[in-house]
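Reproducibility note. Readers wishing to regenerate the assembly model reported in the main text can use the exact inputs given here. Chain order matters: entities are listed in the order in which they were concatenated for prediction.
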Amino acid sequence: MSPATPWTIAGVREALQAKKISARELAREFYTQIDRRNPELNAFLTLCPERAYAQADRVDASMAQGRALEPLAGVPVAIKDVLSTRGVRTTCGSKILENYMPAYDATAIERLEGAGAVILGKTNCDEFAMGSSNENSAYGAVRNPIARDRVPGGSSGGSAAAVAAGLSVVALGTDTGGSIRQPGAYCGIPATMPTYGRVSRYGLIAFASSLDRIGPFATNITDVATVMAVIAGHDSNDSTSAALAVPNYADEIESPVQGLRIGVPEDYFGEGIDSEVKAKVQAGIALLEKLGCKRVPLHMPHTDYAIATYYIVATAEASSNLARYDGVRYGLRVPGATLMEMYRKTRERGFGPEVKRRIMLGTYALSSGYYDAYYLRAQKVRALIAQDFSNAFQKVDAIITPTTPTPAFKLGEKTADPLQMYLADIYTVTGSLAGVPGISIPCGKTKAGLPVGMQIFGPHFGEARILQLARAFEKADGFTI
Amino acid sequence: MKISREDVLRVAELAHLELSPDEVELYRGQLDEILSYIGKLQELDVSHVEPMTQTIPGDLAATHLEAPVSVGSQSDRSGSSEPNLRDDIIAPCNIGDEVLAQAPDAVKPFFRVPKVIER
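Running the prediction on these inputs yields the following structure tokens for the assembly.
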């Protein structure tokens, strides 16, 4: 395995079928790489070799019996450490859950393993998925494998770094305001946020329930389509999951893109965008036009209000969701003379600075006297932002934007200034608030060699459409434009 | 909008967070800056806008969300604006011991905490 030719799902399948390697040997090969590179990258927090080898042996035994391979048979995967894995430590990047062992598997995990995937371990992330650089993890920052002095993005930084470094074939992350797409852009790999309701969130430890989504990282679009087909679909354990048939993504992504209308909102190319990022994304759009797409200029007037809206809605929901960490049922407990003292000491010691900051911001926004001015107003502006998207999708099939205003920034560069860190999500939070699907795909590199991400938004449940555009872009060598 | 020390202490109390004096000062400044930025939401006229309470629009939600899953379901309301509730079906859930094993202080079948009720 060389970095130039990473393993793909199809590659694993062929190698297994040709008996070039067994699922167990493949898992061992990945663990060897992880042992070698993880001390520097810090992408994995917990490895679960026992579980991985048991699953690999199951795949090998099934093959030996002549059974057909499952869609992800033997494929090594990494899982962001906010998804519950039965009996495997799940920390959310927080000290408050340092030794937490979930009693059940998240539905997405169950579906991956049901399709033959081999879960190697749990990946580092910003504490409770709150952050844009992975520097808010209680277990140390992750390094960007493309540029080691830079952040991998966040909050799913460990999952993005693992795939980009070849330490897993695919990975799951979660996206609340950009936490899949932004690290995908910074690490130079495709990163997908499905429609709200497309993938069950049962077993996902909640940050902001009206925004949280689960989605895949991969090195190519065909692998994205394969993973999406496995994890998407209704789940009776998640009342927000959609009971809508899952398309055959692998077939649909090969459809021609000629005649598709791509909207380009001027609002995403204004003040604050890095000139090289802008030039690359514009070159990407020109390539799609060359492939026969019709460019439609758009104006999405409420884009500029998305960060302010997001940081009210998301923190308000977080302040409620994180109230459960009180030292009673699981996780850390710091003893106190009274129940209240125990709560306060536990939360003081267990939560890191960003989590406390967001809990306080959200509590403030929901508190008596401020609810109307902040939370209610944010919910109204959220409706306007969603309206921008539904108006746009009357005219276009997909929307193309940069994923981030700049390439990956340096470790430590923004840690002292939370507001500057929040602004790194300026192009991704809009789609989060609107509930639409989005993907970040590689779109060349800057002169300094840093990956640039191009984002494609589609209408609700339009994953096949955005993957189809991404696949056409990939086939036309857009990733290295 | 200026956030005072007292505001920070009031919010910390509501959120059950114990803060050191340094943290109070740090968060006062940061919350002040973030809330000033968020103040830009006041620029918009939202007097005729309904707040967004569902991430997926109503018409999509009515068709796609939480379809009936059981045989003989009485909750087939697809297409109506009524919320689609699933049937209340009893299913076994035998993870009580595993759940209690995660508790910092458990005396089966209870979680033990400092005394709550004074008499």
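We highlight two features of this model. Chain A touches chain B through 77 residues (CB under 8 Å). The two ends of chain A are 25 Å apart (CA to CA).
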